[in-house]
């Protein structure tokens, strides 16, 4: 009887241990999925950054220097101003408003780039369609989302304290864990979205959609190209920018 009782106790301990391992493995998988999603959300994650996130859930490099590229416009050119205009996609026109009071540096950059017709012909290469993560990311010169690594700026401005980005938000995409990792790209939130902050903070909210948000929701409703990332990838039909005008 003593031997049977000891055997039952050992079996009970083993079941508890196996359950703990299974729960821990499941939790780790969820954490990894979130970190990878946020890493890929960066405008230009490098292969090294992605590998580091996959292996160690952290960035492989030290904190970048806090400085802007030489060709970044001064925030003074947008401070206190409101810019309105249109973002014309191949699938429709979106009315936009940029807030130079809340985000003067970001507004100055987007105004400068639009004045230079930089966005004409650029791609909206990334679409997310999960329940609480809905956005269209635009501004890449190639369909793979590549950006010019020499065009970088900061700081972060007007980032939501609660990590919530309401539908219609226009915000700046950036590299992960880098407050000076903004580039040419931006994203339009088409449904209320939560994006957890990384070690640098949140994402600069530079403006809002004033009309035509249905253009983006229609793109989202069409879905994604077939691939390995469920809910996160390229739109099923290529989306390009015809023009981006601000005044």
Automatic annotation (TrEMBL):
Its EC number is 5.2.1.8. It comes from the Bacteria. The chain crosses the membrane at residues 21-41. Residues 92-246 form the PPIase cyclophilin-type domain. PROSITE patterns: CSA_PPIASE_2. GO terms for molecular function: peptidyl-prolyl cis-trans isomerase activity. InterPro entries: Cyclophilin-like_dom_sf, Cyclophilin-type_PPIase_dom, E_coli_cyclophilin_A-like. Keywords: Isomerase, Membrane, Rotamase, Transmembrane, Transmembrane helix. The keyword Transmembrane applies. This is peptidylprolyl isomerase. It comes from Paenarthrobacter nitroguajacolicus (Arthrobacter nitroguajacolicus).
């Amino acid at each position: 009887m003593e031997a049977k009782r000891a055997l039952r106790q050992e079996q009970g301990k083993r079941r508890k241990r196996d359950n703990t391992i299974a729960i821990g493995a499941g939790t780790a998988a969820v954490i990894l999925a979130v970190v990878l999603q946020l890493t890929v959300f960066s405008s230009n994650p490098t292969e090294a950054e992605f590998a580091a996130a996959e292996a160690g859930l952290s960035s492989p490099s030290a904190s970048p220097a806090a400085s802007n590229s030489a060709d970044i416009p001064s925030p003074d050119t947008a401070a206190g101003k409101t810019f309105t205009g249109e973002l014309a996609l191949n699938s429709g026109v979106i009315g936009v408003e940029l807030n130079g009071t809340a985000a003067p540096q970001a507004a100055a950059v987007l105004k400068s780039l639009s004045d230079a017709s930089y966005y004409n012909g650029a791609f909206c290469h990334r679409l997310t369609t999960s329940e609480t993560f809905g956005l269209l990311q635009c501004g890449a010169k190639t369909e793979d989302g590549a950006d010019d690594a020499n065009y970088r700026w900061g700081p972060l401005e007007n980032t939501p304290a609660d990590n919530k980005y309401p539908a219609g938000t226009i915000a700046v995409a950036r590299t992960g864990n880098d407050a000076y990792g903004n580039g040419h790209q931006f994203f339009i939130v088409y449904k209320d979205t939560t994006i957890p902050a990384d070690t640098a903070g949140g994402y600069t909210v530079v403006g809002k959609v004033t009309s035509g948000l249905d253009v983006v929701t229609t793109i989202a409703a069409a879905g994604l190209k077939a691939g390995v990332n469920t809910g996160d990838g390229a739109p099923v039909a290529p989306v390009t920018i015809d023009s981006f005008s601000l005044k």
